[in-house]
Amino acid sequence: MKMTMRWFGELHDTVTLKDIRQIPCVDGVVTSLMDMQPGQIWPREDIGDMHRRITDAGLAVEVIESVNVHEDIKLGAPGRDERIEAYIETMKRLAAVGIKVICYNFMPVLDWARTRLYYDLPDGSQTMYFSGENIREITPEELAARYAEESGGIALPGWEPERMARIRETIGRYTHIDQGQYWENARYFIDAVIPWAEELDIRMAIHPDDPPVPIFGLPRLINSAESIRRFLALNDSPYHGITLCTGSLGADPANDIPAIIRESAGRIHFAHIRNLRHLDNGDFYESAHPTACGSLDMYAVVKALYDTGFSGYVRPDHGRLIWGERGRPGYGLYDRALGAAYLTGLWEALGRGQGK
Ligand code: DNO
């Protein structure tokens, strides 16, 4: 297991590389060029700069989260071949600086969604909250406006102003895409990029849909054991894999995450490990990482990774904002650092239990 932290770059993060370097046992960051539009070929110079800054700070950078997939690819629209070529060109440029894993998603139009970014917990910390009822009532524009207001304009991946400007039109383009067609479009993309992933030694790790339920009437792809099985069967290459996100899959209590890990062994290239608390009405909020703080059995999750010989990248995922920290929802420093230390502790204990 290689422990990393997500970092959004100097311009977009309140956390510094120096902060991250001081977290015990974290050797690297997972990052992206936040200003790149889907379909854009990433400039070599920007990739080189990003790489230099991180390695100069004494950290490794071997995982990119995310290289976003253009909507034409997800929709199977006429421009998709050109967009796929651009994607592959970006992969080549990332391979040139030693990138080993690309995390991406195939969620239509939007990336993740919550209904509150800074929900107050009784202990005075703040966290992200998802209400099933609220998401049915609200429009994407209203939700984006709420995010902008609550976050003071922080650029949230998946909710960029460029994306929001065309939101109605983009959602409208999905009206004619049924689930079967959506799977075909995913297959087309996978068949095109996986041979290059093999050639470039980059493991492709799709992120599950977050949350795992349909929102705004849009199709869903990766949200259960069955869908992960179906997805991995699209291509037998070991380079075709997943990002195991416990918070995304775990938002559906029917998902048995340790069982998914055991079944997907060898195809999990990256893991986002966080906990959440299910409420009686079906809502959830993101809790601190330890098992006792939420509804997921974190020991069982880490044990399943350990038992299946997982040697990929891990990061603590969304944390709460604690100790008066202000910042990016889910991505403050302190609670994620506690999460990293906790996960490292679980891993060490599992190893010691085996006499290692
Ligand atoms: C949210 C993240 C997602 C993730 C993308 C991967 O915090 O987990 O935005 O980075 O879905 O492409």
Give your account of this protein's structure.
- With 356 residues, the protein is an alpha/beta fold.
- 40% of the residues lie in helices and 16% in strands.
- It has 14 helices and twelve strands.
- The strands form two sheets. The protein has an eight-stranded parallel β-barrel with strand order 1-2-3-4-7-8-9-12. A four-stranded antiparallel sheet has the order 5-6-11-10.
- A hairpin with a 5-residue loop joins β10 (276-278) and β11.
- It starts with a strand and ends with a helix.
- The model has no long low-confidence stretch (mean pLDDT 96).
- Residues 65-66, 103-105, 111-112, 157-158, 207, 272, 330 line the site of D-mannose.
Give the helices and strands, then pairings.
Elements: E1 2-6, H1 17-21, E2 28-31, H2 44-56, E3 60-65, H3 71-75, H4 80-95, E4 101-105, E5 116-120, E6 126-130, H5 132-137, H6 140-151, H7 161-165, H8 167-173, H9 179-200, E7 203-207, H10 225-232, E8 240-245, H11 246-250, H12 257-263, E9 268-273, E10 276-278, E11 284-286, H13 298-307, E12 313-316, H14 334-353
Parallel strand pairs: 1-2, 1-12, 2-3, 3-4, 4-7, 7-8, 8-9, 9-12
Antiparallel strand pairs: 5-6, 6-11, 10-11
The structure holds D-mannose.
Name the features.
four-stranded antiparallel β-sheet; 356 residues; eight-stranded parallel β-barrel; binds D-mannose
Strand portion = 15-25%
Report the radius of gyration as a whole number of Å.
19 Å
What oligomerization state is this entry in?
single chain
What is the β-strand count?
12
Structural class: alpha/beta
- Name the ligand types: D-mannose
- C-alpha geometry: globular
* Major sheet attributes: 8 strands, parallel, barrel
Low-confidence stretches: none
**Fraction of residues in H or I helices:** 25-40%
Number of helices: 14
Mean pLDDT: 96
First-to-last CA distance? 14 Å
